[in-house]
Design goal:
Layout (H helix, E strand, L loop, with lengths): L20 H13 L5 H13 L3 H5 L5
Helix pairs in contact: 1-2
Length: 64
């Protein structure tokens, strides 16, 4: 039996790139435009970036 290389998902959103959420989303968009990510991977990564915020902070925003 041969050894298998560990599979890593190349579309993983950065946990914290040192920047803000907007710069992380811009990074995902650049990677998608370059062909490194599929459209679905990009959407999943952006959703993950949005959801990593504190839920209390997200729900207390005034959207009106």
């Amino acid at each position: 039996m041969g050894t298998a290389d560990p599979v890593t998902r190349k579309g993983a959103a950065p946990e914290r790139s040192g920047g803000d959420d907007l710069s992380d989303v811009e990074l995902v968009i650049r990677r998608a435009r370059a062909g490194d990510l599929t459209e679905n991977e990009a959407f999943e990564d952006i959703d993950r970036i949005v959801r990593r915020r504190d839920p209390a902070d997200f729900h207390q925003k005034s959207w009106l």
